[in-house]
Amino acid sequence: MKALQLTRWKASPELVELDEPELGPGQVVVRIGGAGACHSDLHLLHDFDEGMLPFDPPFTLGHENAGWVHAIGEGVSWLEVGQPVAVYGPWGCGWCKRCRLGMENYCERQGEIGVFGGGLGLDGGMAPLMLVPSSRLLVPLDTLDPVDAAPLTDAGLTPYHAIKRSLHLLEPGSTAVVIGIGGLGHLGVQILRALTAARIIAVDTRDEALRLASESGADHTVTPGADAADQIRDLTRGRGADVVLDVVGSDDTLSLATAVSRPLGHVTLVGIAGGSIPFSFFSQPYEVSLATTYWGSITELMEVIALAEAGHLRPHVTRFSLDEAPAVYEKLAAGEIAGRAVVSPTGS
Ligand code: NAD
Ligand code: ZN
Ligand code: ZN
Fold this sequence. Notes:
The protein is an alpha/beta fold. It has two domains: 2-154 and 296-344, Quinone Oxidoreductase, Chain A, domain 1 (Alpha-Beta Complex), CATH 3.90.180; 157-292, NAD(P)-binding Rossmann-like Domain (Rossmann fold), CATH 3.40.50. 26% of the residues lie in helices and 24% in strands. It has helices at residues 39-46, 97-100, 110-113, 146-149, 157-164, 183-195, 207-216, 228-235, 251-260, 298-309, 325-333, and strands at residues 2-6, 14-17, 28-36, 59-60, 65-72, 84-87, 117-118, 121-122, 129-132, 138-140, 175-179, 199-203, 220-222, 241-246, 261-269, 289-292, 317-321, 340-344. Strands 3, 5, 6, 9, 10, 17 and 18 form a seven-stranded mixed sheet that branches. A six-stranded parallel sheet has the order 13-12-11-14-15-16, with helices on both faces. A three-stranded antiparallel sheet has the order 2-1-4, with no helix packed on it. The protein is globular, with a radius of gyration of 20 Å. The two termini are 16 Å apart. Bound molecules: nicotinamide-adenine-dinucleotide (NAD) and zinc ion (2 copies). One zinc ion (ZN) binds next to loops.
């Protein structure tokens, strides 16, 4: 079968020919309907050298996947061939306390495991078939089309987790700021709209992204620049934002995030642009909490899928074929994708 692989660090991905995956006991092969092209893949392609991550190429890209059960390993009795499923992306040991709570994204044995999941060290979903090492990593879909559902597993799940940990701050009358309205950000806005009555302010450099933010439920849009912080402060009547999600993570966006936060607010860094901010007694309002978040839990993925099944989340998806996948990453890097680009290796 054809697959889009990262074959070496600091290189563009390549279409290669691979054998179909071999199924073992407890495992499942998924026929991929959709594999989302995440900006993290661009970091993976360009930011690392040998030895910087616990794994090395080659492996098939695609860590945001949904499809249909294709083949079921011995001992798995609760799945049917043809059943639509979403693939939970961060693969832990399944055994430690955090994994048993569904938080495989924060597995206690991550260091020993060495790979992060399919598309992140192991073969991912940018191929017609993907081996999932355990049926526990699948979440059933009901009415959702796997191509449109694929982004829920990362672009939906990651902001969902980041928002949920701050939900107690997002009471009516509060303000949430989302910086970076791409794949994750537009779903972050939809999740805030679905879960809260907070005022939502979206920040992006691209007009197209800000249009998508408004369609997704943002109350206000702001373009970054010298007066962006003042604009956001004015929109909150000088109070500041209760929660800021920085889905870019550059020096500039982090300094905007802390500048517009209120005392006791949350600034959550989701984007991996590699920026930093100084931390000192006076560098941010009192008792602002700064946190990074990585992906989300399996139970949160179930909630994200339930939100989408109920019509509250609608990923803005542009579909591409597997042959177009190398060009998709070029478009993503050039800022030419609105919402999420999804590669459909089985041509759905
Ligand atoms: P994307 O390319 O789809 O969207 C990024 C958006 O940010 C674009 O709309 C772009 O115009 C905007 N942007 C860029 N620079 C900006 C700036 N200075 N100010 C305001 N907006 C700006 O990317 P994505 O797939 O949504 O991913 C976003 C980030 O989140 C990436 O860094 C990615 O690696 C990271 N990510 C993190 C996790 C996690 O678990 N923490 C998971 C997935 C992705
Ligand atoms: Zn991702
Ligand atoms: Zn674990």
